[in-house]
Structure formats: structure tokens, C-alpha cells
Amino acid sequence: MKTSSANDQRIPITLLTGFLGAGKTTLVNNVLSNATDEKIAVIVNEFGEIGIDGDLISRASDDMLELANGCICCSSKDDLMEALYKLYMRRAGLAEPKVDFDRVLIETTGLANPLPLAQAFYTDMSLSLTYRLDAIVTLVDLKHVSVQLENAAEAERQIALADKILMSKRDLVSDAEYENALSLVHALNPFAPRSLINFGAAKVDELLDIGLFDPNTGESSVEKWIAIEPSCSSPERHNHHDGHCEICSTSEPHTHHHTGVSSVSFREERPLEYEKVLAFLAGLTQGYGSNLYRVKGLINFQGSDRPVIVQGVQNIFSPLTYADAWRRGVAETRLVVIGKGIQREALSEAFHSCVAKAEDMLENGFVMV
């Protein structure tokens, strides 16, 4: 099992998704125009769509614009991986013109499915050695999200896969429409933090270096990455018996009724068995296939004093990785599953079968990884 490094030198990438008309282009343009100390490389489908102020451009070529504030805008056209490769070669001084940047923002087309790119960070060795996916950020059009979800599967995937959700066009909807849009987004992805933006005016730190896809070892970063809402719908206090709580061990799934997408969270204070967890994850991929969107969590394995990071996109999982320490020293497994057609009762039973038996914990003081 690997140990996550707090000194990861790979270049962070933010993947910006959102359906047609949500305002991604305006958002990207504002980021490029207002960046000060940040050296950002932005990859877009076509230069003509971004509408960069000509006064900002210091040098231009067929596939790249260099801006006076140190940012770069590149065209990916049909090959995003090729654009990332060229960027890295120019940054390393192995291709001309040499450029300098610290992070990458990729604006996807409105119809793009973010799954393939997210999976590429697990399956493409050259990509994963050079870049890391910092977060999938989805921009939601509050005015049209209901119609988009009814008519396009891509819209549902973009929200369900998001690590963070930005919401635009609040000024164009009534309070009732706003609440309805929030309920739709929450049903698809109740765990991603959400914030409103006006006319694309998001702060750079709302998009970049937010560390929500692949956490580093910082205690606060891991906690933020796997933040799970309290599973109990009732505000009343309740007691835990024998270190276990039937109420908050699993949450009721939040379901988007048009599509059948739901999310389930698990919390468990008792340690889990390594082999059983692997079997549980294998069962998820085999049972749900392409309907499994995201799995992420921190696992308290029997015999280990450090949390283990679980991260998967559809049927592709990253290698299990140790984080530094449990928050405040409290070991507790937390796991989130988002997908279509999730069978809560069967999933709950399979998850709880991973709990290590008391006699095994006494007999085995360690876990082989």
C-alpha cells in the first residue's frame, strides 16, 4: 500500500464541467483576466469561444495564447491528452515556446462526460506521473437545470461526479425555483460543497488548489475531502452502544427520481477487514458497472492506526493509500457511494459484513497490505 505525499510535485488540474449555457466561458474568462500571482494554464476547446480581451494577449500561436499576467490559454480541439503533453513539454523546456505555469484549468464542452478524463488519471501512467486531478468542479445553471436533467444524461453525470458545485443565474429564478433546483442538485450529489456565483465572478481559490479529488496527507485536507453530512435526519441526540450506531451507520439514499441516481454514505467506528473491503469494492464494480459513478472514503482497517484512502471512478480505483492520521485521533470509516439504481439494503448488508469480528481483532494484531 502506498503512502500519500504532502510534497506532491505533480501539476494540479481542475476539470470544469457544466451544461451548455451555464456560464463556463464567462467564468474562465474572468479567471484569466483577474489572475494576479497565479500562473494558470487554461485549456479550452476553441479560442474563439473564450473571447479574451486582445489587450491581455502578449504572444499568440496556432494552439496557445500567452497573456500579459503570466497565464496561458491553450486550444485542445480534438485531443485533450495531446494538449496536456505539449504543455508539459514546453514547461520542461523540451519544446518551444517555453512556458511557465503552476496549475491547469480545463474547460470541457457542455456535452462532455467527465468520467473518461477522471479515469485517465488512474489508467494513463504518463498522465498520472505528471499531473494530478485536483477537483471536478461543475457549474450548474439554476434556471435550466431541471430541464437539462430530464433530457440529458451528461448533465446528471456532471453533477453526480462533482467534487464542488458552483451555481449560476440565481437572479433569474424565484425563491421556489431556487429551492427546487437545490433539491435536484442535492439529490444527485449531497456531499459536494456548493456556492453561488454572479456573472462568472468566482474567486480563484474556489476553483483551483482545493484538493477535493485526490487528498494530500494534511489532516484538514483529508477531512474536507471526505466530509459527509450527518446521516441522521433528526436533530435529536442519540446514544452509541458498543461503539456502534444503527441510526448513523448508513444514510437514507438521496435519489433523483427522474434518473434513479442516488448516493449512500456509511460511517462505522469498528475496524474493517482488509480482504472483505476489497471484496465489497469488487462487488460494487461488478454489480453496478457503468452505473457506478463515484466511490470515495477513509477506511479504518483492522490493525492499522492510519486511515486508508479509497477513491474510485466507475470501475477504476486508485491504489489504496495511507493518509497521515485520523482527525483528532478518532478512527472512523467513512464511505460515499454515488450511482444509478443503488440498492440500499443490499449495499448496507454488504458493507457491514466487512466489520472485523471481535475474535479476529484479538487474534490478529496487524493487517497485511
Automatic annotation (TrEMBL):
<dbReference type="InterPro" id="IPR011629">
    <property type="entry name" value="CobW-like_C"/>
</dbReference>
<dbReference type="InterPro" id="IPR003495">
    <property type="entry name" value="CobW/HypB/UreG_nucleotide-bd"/>
</dbReference>
<dbReference type="InterPro" id="IPR051316">
    <property type="entry name" value="Zinc-reg_GTPase_activator"/>
</dbReference>
<dbReference type="GO" id="GO:0005737">
    <property type="term" value="C:cytoplasm"/>
</dbReference>
<protein>
    <submittedName>
        <fullName>Cobalamin synthesis protein P47K</fullName>
    </submittedName>
</protein>
<feature type="domain" description="CobW C-terminal">
    <location>
        <begin position="261"/>
        <end position="355"/>
    </location>
</feature>
<comment type="similarity">
    <text>Belongs to the SIMIBI class G3E GTPase family. ZNG1 subfamily.</text>
</comment>
<dbReference type="Pfam" id="PF02492">
    <property type="entry name" value="cobW"/>
</dbReference>
<keyword id="KW-0143">Chaperone</keyword>
<dbReference type="GO" id="GO:0000166">
    <property type="term" value="F:nucleotide binding"/>
</dbReference>
<dbReference type="InterPro" id="IPR027417">
    <property type="entry name" value="P-loop_NTPase"/>
</dbReference>
<comment type="function">
    <text>Zinc chaperone that directly transfers zinc cofactor to target proteins, thereby activating them. Zinc is transferred from the CXCC motif in the GTPase domain to the zinc binding site in target proteins in a process requiring GTP hydrolysis.</text>
</comment>
<keyword id="KW-0547">Nucleotide-binding</keyword>
<keyword id="KW-0378">Hydrolase</keyword>
<dbReference type="Pfam" id="PF07683">
    <property type="entry name" value="CobW_C"/>
</dbReference>
<dbReference type="InterPro" id="IPR036627">
    <property type="entry name" value="CobW-likC_sf"/>
</dbReference>
<dbReference type="GO" id="GO:0016787">
    <property type="term" value="F:hydrolase activity"/>
</dbReference>
